Amino acid sequence: MNPYIFGVILPVLATLLFRSNHPKRRGVPTDTTDPGVTVRNKRFDSPVETAWEGVSTLAELFEEACRKYGEGLLLGTRLLVSREMETSSDGRQFEKVELGGYEWLSYAEVFEAVSSFGSGLAALGHGREHRAAIFADTREEWFIALQGCFRRNVTVVTMYASLGEEALCHSLNETEATTVICGKKELKTLVNISGQLDSVKRLICLDDDIPSDASSVGHGWTIISFADVKRLGKENPVDADLPLPPDVAVIMYTSGSTGLPKGVMMTHGNVLATVSAVKTIVPKLGKKDIYLAYLPMAHILELAAENLMAAVGAAIGYGSPLTLTDTSSKIKKGTKGDATVLMPTLMAAVPAILDRVRDGVFKKVNATGGLPKKLFYLSYERRLQAINGSWFGAWGLEKVLWNFLVFKKVRAILGGRIRFILSGGAPLSGDTQQFINICLGAPIGQGYGLTETCAGGTFSDFDDTSVGRVGPPLPCSYIKLIDWPEGGYLTNDSPMPRGEIVIGGPNVTLGYFKNEEKTKESYKVDERGMRWFYTGDIGRFHLDGCLEIIDRKKDIVKLQHGEYVSLGKVEAALIVSPYVDNIMLHADPFHSYCVALVVASQSTLEEWASKEGIPYSGFSELCSKEESLKEVHASLVKEAKKAGLQKLEIPAKLKLLSDPWTPESGLVTAALKLKREAVRKTFQEELLKLYSS
Question: Which pTM does this prediction carry?
């Protein structure tokens, strides 16, 4: 056959195919007289409430799955082999662990544990009219406790394990929780605030070795281990007291970016709607899948994901962000991380985790240098051209070759078998999304939703390789844009309608617990009885019905001369700098420029200092050097120009920080989102110096 066909004609045809002027319709306008622009998922005329016939609650969903997949594997946990402390060159100590293989419980075994735990709750005197709180890291006992509560129609109050004492005390007292389920680590925090807790009568410790200082003496509670509760329930079984769809399943306390956390009331019907909608989007979910669970289960993204995995017969293997890969900070050198051992096919992630994976790969490639580095960037560019439709290498021998020679090693970082990644919780940069598509060879579904909508909102389609967008409405949701004249965003804007994003559907929650004023402000019910949540986010609809998040009301600040700056938009553009681990832009109306607090990437900055021959005695000193400030600022300017930012949006001055922002420090949420007000208060002196210098 004429080679001209392969060399010219087929690539041109492929380009035309992918560059069509008539993009595939993914979301379509609804017939409505409501103000604004409303779009629904193309495949469903009305919002989906359940994907399982005869199932209307999470408790029914779990029971049905256990009946169907009885002997299949459900929950897996790695056993601790050893634990030791390592001391770094600057004297800091770090815990390192060696973990063994996964030990599994079947669906039938988990169902027995759930039933026993539910009966144990009843035997302890916890009735359906009282609330139980779960305050622990993600683990198999968390899942069992949740399902045990659902089986007895007990509302579960969820709180991040990293929640501070004030917020924890507020959450427990506001909900009048009588039982708290926690780990040994979290028990210490509860002991510290025991005198401030009004309603807690009993603690259930997920670990057997309960610390002596947590005993009931002086604290006003009884304490029992998780294993003993199950044993008590097995000896005193009671029938299930299954909930109805309108019953409140969870009161979920966010870690909040400002002030005390708010409790969002989610019904069984609310969460089931999101779980059902995602099932219709991700193809071929089933018992062959293995899901890596490591995000906080107190976050709706993880809670919904694990309920979905259990519903379709998949296996759930537990890990943690600190033990995720072979090079994770807590993994002992020479031993294996969670992903390597589990070899998952599915995982959920927040952008901060994916950014770390991408940065780690590029740093390793650049450090290797030579032919391997050239080969990596050549293959990366060819695959990028293929995904963008400008090169025929999307198929055939070349793709197989690059996968075998280059990307196989990258895929091994997450176990080598990932077929789909769900990203949510914050905006994902286009660079990271392309990296996942190319190097991991797996589609990445970027979702948009909030705790108030049970994580439901939009979700990008499996076959959509575009970046910077969050997809069409989920089948459980309507997405509406309404005018925000003050910010200059209107639904009649050209070429795309723009405005505040409002989400409607069965996944929209009841509101905020004991906060009627805030509920009325953010939730509305239309004449058809549909609940709508006003997000405060600004978006625009593309021609194919996909949504793009472009701003947030609270993040927009007016400078001295009247120009507006979107803090979140700028931070998303600058955080891709290799020198940046985290960043907060700051602006105020009394100045004509912005400043930034930058948590520096220690490995990148130290590598640069070594090449430049810059002496320093510690990382903190390196961050304070003028040369470091100039180098990082130049990098930020470079990224800003690539992103098309205006000069006034680029920070004129910055402060380099050596200590990372963690959930434990209270400066980021458990989903690693910036807590802007907390950072501002913590570094207010540094910010004042930046403006006065």
Answer: 0.84
